[in-house]
Amino acid sequence: xxxxxxxxxxWESAKWLxxxxxxxxxxxxxxxxxxxxxxxxDFKEDRLYPQFNHIESTPVKDHAxxxxxxxxxxxxxxxxxxxxxxLDGDAFPCDFVDSDFLKIVDNNxxxxxxxxxxxxxxxxxxxxxxxxVDSYLKHKFDWTPGPHWGTTQGEFTDVGARIWEYAFKNNxxxxxxxxxxxxxxxxxxxxxxxxxxxxxxxxxxxxxxxIDRLCPSKQFSRCIWLFKYIEKIQHKMSIGNIYRFQNLxxxxxxxxxxxxxxxxxxxxxxxxxxxxxxxxxxxx
Length: 284
Fold this sequence. Notes:
Blueprint: E1 4-11, H1 17-27, E2 32-39, E3 54-56, H2 63-77, E4 83-88, E5 91-93, H3 104-107, E6 111-113, E7 125-132, H4 133-139, E8 149-151, E9 154-156, H5 161-169, E10 175-177, E11 191-193, E12 197-199, H6 210-214, H7 224-234, H8 239-249, H9 251-272, H10 278-283
Parallel strand pairs: 1-2, 1-4, 2-3, 6-10
Antiparallel strand pairs: 4-7, 5-12, 6-7, 8-9, 11-12
């Protein structure tokens, strides 16, 4: 049976590490090996590190560089028909990953979360990415951003855009895992994809998203008329000016504060749940 080589990134905090590993151990029903980029090296979690086949702990801030580094290490050690899986540190399976699920990579050049709920974002999101190792090497996947895609809100790029453009231009099929939440407490974060993969979102940075910035009325039930008016004003601004406007007016601080409250509450619920079933009860 082929092996899944799981690469995960934890940046400036290891708080998600024990949770992620618990879910991986429970729900991965195929052989796997673990590889991590964990910075800084947190000695409080020493008991967990022996579970990894390899750990990088270099102060590389750029997320795409960390993904490319982990991918290179995995591909150098794995067999051609093995599978590479990349996970954000706040992402993990919440239902069983078995050989049937892995057929995704036999029929497509890769599979990945696609956050279509974020203004129809077309790119593969690195919170969850899966491919055969020989496919990964053949297509020379590169996580650095660069290519842009257009939306009604403007043009964007992000980690994964280069892989998306490569697949699009060469007419390759990939498998997008779509959001399947039945309960949404945020339009983007706390997402379950294909009823199988959970992604908390913004687990290692200030929690503010494009949806929050461009559609702040989605986050507040009070004074919704005010936020609708702000959206109307912002509609005439460039993306950069919207960010500056929100920083100067304090709206950015308000959005981050609101999101932190929700994120911390959900994190604590997941942290305190020994059954590893709470994600299903919260969101499915």
